[in-house]
Amino acid sequence: MAGKGLRAGLLETGTRFVSRAAERVLSDPRGQEVMARAVGFAQRGRRRISELQERVLSTAGVPGRRDYEELARQLARIKRKARELGRKLDPAVRGDGEDQTR
Fold first, then answer.
1. Sequence spans of domains, the chain
2. How far apart are CA 83 and CA 91, in angstroms?
3. How far, in Å, CA of 36 to CA of 88, rounded?
4. Residue of 76, 57, 82 whose CA lies nearest to 67
């Protein structure tokens, strides 16, 4: 029981400390600039890792995320076209009220 109280107290104190430190950093223009650079650096790093991962997968002959995204777009186009064709054919099939496919 005492362990949970100590742990909760340490967590609360640590949270307050981090919150105050973040407020101080973000209230200072230099801190804002550093944070912006850090975020930009992280985004560039993530993009480079993604590009490298795509190249490795492509080299190994394994489809990557871009391949799946392109397939999803193609499938969506095919579905739309099938619906359009179905609408155009539906009146022709029913023509005089009977199904002429028999």
1. 65-94
2. 13
3. 54
4. 57
For residue 54, give every residue at least 6 positions away whose Cβ sits within 8 Å of its Cβ, in sequence order, or none.
64, 65, 66
In tens, the pLDDT along 6-35 reads 989 999 999 999 999 989 888 999 999 999
Looking at residue 28, what DSSP letter applies?
Answer: S
Amino acid, res. 55: R
Q: What is the pTM of this model?
A: 0.49
Give the DSSP letter string of 30-83. HHHHHHHHHHHHHHHHHHHHHHHHHHHHHHTT---HHHHHHHHHHHHHHHHHHH
**Beta carbons within 10 angstroms of residue 3's beta carbon:** 7
